[in-house]
Automatic annotation (TrEMBL):
Keywords: Transcription, Transcription regulation. PANTHER family: ARAC-FAMILY TRANSCRIPTIONAL REGULATOR, HTH-TYPE TRANSCRIPTIONAL REGULATOR RV1931C. This is Helix-turn-helix domain-containing protein. CDD domains: GATase1_AraC_1. It comes from Streptomyces coryli.
Amino acid sequence: MAHRVAVLALDGVYPFELGIPRRVFGTLPERYEVSTCTADGGPVRTSADFTIAVEHGAELLATADTVVIPPYDCALVGEEPPAGTAAALARIRPGARIVSICTGAYALAAAGLLDGRPATTHWRETDRFRRLYPHVQLDPGVLFVDDGDILTSAGAASGVDVCLHLVRTDHGTETANHVARCCVVPPWRDGGQAQYIEQPVPPVAAASTAATRAWALARLDQPLALDELAGHAGMSLRTFARRFRDEVGMSPGRWLIRQRVERARQLLEAGDLPVERIAAEVGFATSASLRQHLHAAIGVSPQAYRRTFQARERADR
């Protein structure tokens, strides 16, 4: 049976984010069934110059395995969530996974679902959100927060990130990469990545580190020292490090570790290569180093990750 995803469109919903769950999960119709509802089954206005009509009311939420709350324009509805939100959320069955995108976190917080829990929303909403919901452990500097049964994400494109993260969690890296290719988006941006970068676009005359990043990804099994990367980019060490951080939002060393961990996860999912071989394939000096970095990233050992993924694959089959 397909995993049932219900998307709750609230008054003032942003059309772009409303379409994200269908675009991402709908790429796998054999695995996800995506339906949209409103609190009362009637049309709702959007943040744009049109309204939307749906086929379902909040009763749909009682049957969902995952519920997604897209953002809504707070300027249209005021500080309180739209009418009927609390009653709609109360229909979500125990054990269902709940996801908010951007200001959708306000609806969850108002219902008390985020009290004492880590969460995020758009960084511009930080002061207002903290004033209204001081009991939420808000982190405005990340793309999304996965707290198990409740996930919250930042603005706009981070909704794509959190939905891809769920596909990856449910069905592995290869499937998530397939969905990302179909959607023509990056396959993976870690939830802990910064929401915004101070200088995201370099000056027109400035060289980019993109070619060097692609070059490095093809050579993850090699040491790849910083001076070697800078040399490939034709920059001084200081210029390269500064330009890299401006474009990517993290240091070259931290970025390399993340890419190596990601590649290791793919290899763990794809077959039965020994951990020592995988460590060598992705550029970690020892299997102990791989274990350390994988545990820091996802909290489990390589063997435990492989067992969990393979058990999930058997269950899917």
